[in-house]
Amino acid sequence: MKSANIVIIGAGAAGIAAATRLLESGFENVLLLEAENRYGGRVNTIPFADNVVDLGAQWCHGEKGNAIYELVKDLDMLQRPVITFNDYKSVRSNKEVLSEATTNALKSVVSNLIPSPEKDLKDFEGSLGTFYTEAFWRDLQHSAGIDKNVAREFFENYKKMQSSADGADNLFEVSAKGQLEYQECEGDQELNWKDKGFRSFLRLLMKANKDNAEDLGLLNKRIQYNSRVQNIDWKNSNGGARIRLWNGELIEADHIICTVSLGVLKEMHQQMFTPALPSAKCRAIDGLKLGTVDKFLMEFSEPFKPTDWPCFNMLWREEDLAELRNSDHFWLESVIGFHRVACQPNLLEAWIIGPHARHMETLLESEVLKALLWLLNKFFTFEVPEPVNFLRTHWYTNPNFRGSYSFRSMYTEELRTGSWDLATPLIDEKDGKPLLQFAGEATHPHLYSTVHGAVESGWREAQHLIDYYQDKTSQT
Ligand SMILES: Cc1cc2nc3c(=O)[nH]c(=O)nc-3n(C[C@H](O)[C@H](O)[C@H](O)COP(=O)(O)OP(=O)(O)OC[C@H]3O[C@@H](n4cnc5c(N)ncnc54)[C@H](O)[C@@H]3O)c2cc1C
Asked: Is the pLDDT of residue 197 over 70?
């Protein structure tokens, strides 16, 4: 254990979890290679407005069975949700705010779309989009007096909300029965990290000094930044592995834990691995999917009015949508709505999904802001003030991510693949030595798409190495 040379590719949640677990278990040669100039990966907390914002993961989703919640529950790091996402208002593109009665009736229809996931989804062969569409129009018949156009607008927006939760471009690519693989942890789904952001959890894992941002605790001097891995020769003749970085630097390893995102694997795996990965793993990389979810953050000089609205969603009337689609602002169709942010009184956050998010990422920040102001003014009766600060994310165009988080698609079903194929370590057949292991959110069988899933996957692969060396020790 002391001499084993372990290289972890990626210093996101999975990489940090694997490295800290290994170091705490007696391994001494652990190095993290990170392509970015920071740790955290899709956890990216930065200073903004009154304190910090999270450009990636923002909430701890659930309590029971959530490894993150279990670790921090007594440490006063998390706050119960202050924004109730189900309290959203619905505003139409003619500036009409849907009445409480209509919104509640429609919310009640959509909240009952899957009365029993086990029973309703298990044998459903189609996509979640198909399932929802059939169920929505069937159930709407029992809600008298709702205008069909309004119902359609509401449902279009609802599908986008659900797509963003799944991390899919649209619900017609999400497998309905694939939903059963995901296990939601019981409890509050939007626990927030107060004014410290999600990074505070990663720093806890590292045992980093709270008052010194430079200190990385267990990982001091163990993360090599700006080190983009280009090739991994994982089965070379002397029984080890050789890693080549983008700048030509070569690094030797006895074991490699690769935690790069599914998006990076999709784009890179053919060049990245020598020899090529086995076909089952290539099938998993191909079949599992991830879409794009991006955020906009707008800081105003005072709380955005109406101040008693925690969130509002944008419903496009058919004629306004047709006009929008013919304009340069066509991509605004996929902005779902806006919401407030805990501990940030002057902030509005919005999410955008799919191909339109990817298009948005190619535009200048000033163009994006101008379009968003146009959008807000289109939906509100008053003149919307200019924000004092603005930013948006680039989870797709950044080559170190190429998307946001993974889900089970119709193509995953078609290929009969899953996280098990992605997670399977590649082992030296002669002596069972793990050569190349895979961790990261997409490798988790039930908690994919989350930080707690990524953390558990890192621990899983660390445990694999711990078990291997303990077995070896007990044999000698
Ligand atoms: C917008 C958004 C919102 C989200 N919201 C939530 C939320 O509220 N709650 C939640 O639980 N989850 C959320 N998630 C998902 C969560 O962020 C991820 O599931 C989790 O952080 C993934 O961690 P990971 O370690 O698997 O991967 P990553 O964080 O992607 O880590 C992989 C690391 O590998 C590095 N890398 C990539 N290629 C190379 C290379 N060639 N060489 C070296 N290094 C490389 C990357 O830079 C990265 O640091 C959100 C994600 C996004 C994008």
From this structure: yes
